[in-house]
User: What shape does this take?
Amino acid sequence: MTETLGFCQEMRPESCGFILFGATGDLAARKILPALFGLCEKKLAPKNFYIVLAGRTPLDRGALESRLWDAVTKAGFSPSPEVFSAFLERLEYIQADYESDAFYALLGGRLAELDAKFGVKKKHLFYLATPPGAFEPITGKLKATGLLFDPKDCACWSRVIIEKPYGFSLESAAALDAGLKQAAPESQAYRIDHFTGKETVQNVMALRSANAVFDGTWNNKFVDHVQITVLEELGLEGRAGFFEHLGLARDMMSHILQLAAITAMDLPATFRDTDFKAEKQRFFESVRPLSREEVSKQAVRGQYAGYRAEPGVAPGSAAETFFAFRFQVDNDRWRGVPFYVRAGKKAGLKKASIDVVYKKPDHGIFTHIDIGYPNVFSFSIQPEEKVSFSLVGKHPGPKLCFTPRSMGLDYRAEGQEAAAFPTDYQRLLIDAMSGDQTLFLSSFEIKFMWEFLSPLLAAWQAAPAANPLRSYADGTPGPAEAAELIKKDGRAWV
Ligand code: BG6
Assistant: This one.
């Protein structure tokens, strides 16, 4: 076990019932069901806990169990029969018609029975893994039937988690948010962005807070530029219906902006959600969205060559599967430091990272010799969970020669302890069951994301000649123009 220092705060999920809408969908199978299983397997779920899965598809118990088995094993678990049966015992399926009052009446009755059976005191966490069009009807009905309620002075609670995409445009996102607010005040609404639950992402804040050596240099005096990278090896994975409509920028922008905020916001006075969000809001207020006119110079969009041959993709599809852009933060800490972003599918590698690239030495023997950027602080989020710092040191031997070196901190090297730590979705489910909203998104973040995204999308749509969709070979990290975007500033992707 690694030693912990004086400050140690642990989330304790409260006994509750977890109700998953959209339980037969892709997101449920890939992320949420495995996360629920993982919580139960690692004994991180509350002792008194049950799961109700709701979906439109009719499923008998046998079909349900084989779907769950598939989801869990595809996610990499190899559960023993005992562990898997213990999971199944906590869980049941209800066929849903999200529009019908009868369904909510049935659900309400069943939740009361399950509360009694599992010793839960009317504490319910609803997870909407449905298309956004279903959010408002579901939350409206949950509210109307008393399943989503204002806890007032009882010790019970009801909370709702919603998943992106949070709308399709600034207007539709505002309408969606207004609908959500009708049913659930901000204190009950948990907007999830699973990147905030990733271990390295949280360590960015922890390292910055605990080590003055980093935060003291986290500014435009020392930092040359920042890179945010989210490249994926995978392509569509059968999600053409979802992706064709959205494209990569709508799919990934929330993740990118969260990474930017956690890297560059000022440190909050405490890690309580109110302080954390106040600082995050101040950061977003200082980010300058690109204007429509700037997009052609500061952004690149691309599509992998094989995309149009994917099942379900339109022959002339203009959905982007890659984008790169540069933006500026207009505050005293970061003024003049460019932030470069690139994200894409079928990029030949899985790499999610934040790289803080320090300035080159401006005096001493290297003033006239270009040794590149010797110091890069890299937070590797995926596939490894690592933090490293590159520097230049003396090459061993009798001569004075210099050589690049790297210092690292690898979470997985902590062995047993690392195997037990929760994954992104698991961590966020624990937080929601504990009533901690720090890592969830507030209304202002969704609004900011759309204000940031809208000019980019508008320029791409209205001026395709100035903003061509660049093709890139499958298995390569984006089109040549993305390399050019950073190269013309005298820099390169890390
Ligand atoms: C999701 C996107 O939010 O994030 C997917 O919808 C993307 O398109 C995924 O593949 C990446 O996250 P992770 O954690 O699976 O790498």
